[in-house]
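With this grant's support, we have settled on a layout for protein records. One resulting record is reproduced below.
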Amino acid sequence: MKKTIFFVVLIFIFNACGAVEYTVFNGFSHANLRKVSWSNLKGFKKDSLTRSFQAFKLACTKTSKVSYLTQSCNNTTKYIDAKKFFKNNFTPYAMYNDSNTNTGLITGYYEPLLKGSLEQSRTYRYPIYKTPKDLITVDLSSIYPNLSNYKLRGRLVGNTLVPYYSRKNLQNSKHLKAICYVKSRINRFFLEIQGSGKILLKNGNTINVSYADQNGQKYISIGKTLVDMGVMKEKDLSLQNIKRYLLRHPRQVNNILNSDNSVVFFSQNKGEALGALGVPLIAGVNIAVDKRYIPLGLPVFLSTTNPINKKIKINLLTIAADVGGAIQGKVRADFYFGSGQKAASLAGVMRENGLMYILVPNSIAVTF
């Protein structure tokens, strides 16, 4: 097995109150971290953590050979009590922004159901694309280990790698192939935002599609576009409100959707919704993260609020199993609500502040 050396660095960020000290595990995460006690994780003591343990073991089917998770994954067979497993194998660290704040944006996503066909027609016009063969992905980690979480995507023009086609210019590619076709370009767009979904075909069969790759272009929120246009206020942004505006203004749809240069490509799978980690997503347990700061497969304790009933607190141990173009930042997560109308209702309005605690494997955690 390839051995990875992790460097623990104390960094100081200066603000109006003076220097703030953080721990950064280089080669593992670029997050600003502060070690805390388990008592800081409100709700951790009350939860049996059974579903979290199941999700972690499922993630281990993909991460057991990752150096910093090998020992923890191997230890799953030695425990029946989930709480003892996590407390004996991990150390909790609070996550902070560069501004010395520890709250971040927690949004939600779900698995949508679209009507579609394997053949294109006037009714089913909009393709769900596979990854194009001319999309080149360059993994920089072999040359620059510190850039292990960064990938460069583009296409070759002669011997030069240039940016891949944006959403607006995607049809210029001669390598596009569709998995299937759907009725609504708006629903197709939101399928990209969610990252996976089900397609109900005309013959009654259902196929599952999940995130395969992305064109490398920067994600731009169409919610921000609507705010910049002056047609919606930031406090009113939700999936439901955005979709409602697009349906009422069909002539503006192309320009609004094209303001997001990013395009997601899909693959067809036989099982449930798959996250970027390659394992089935579990509703209420998995989250999408920015893997520059949270490696996939890692447990993350989340403390936030139910978006519909603010009196209901969400305090639970989640497992990072997915990514998303909009999920960027040191304290940022997208909570997976599952499938169905209830999940869609919750995910569409989920835009809450939250605290995040990353559980660092004891194999690399350092006691100060």
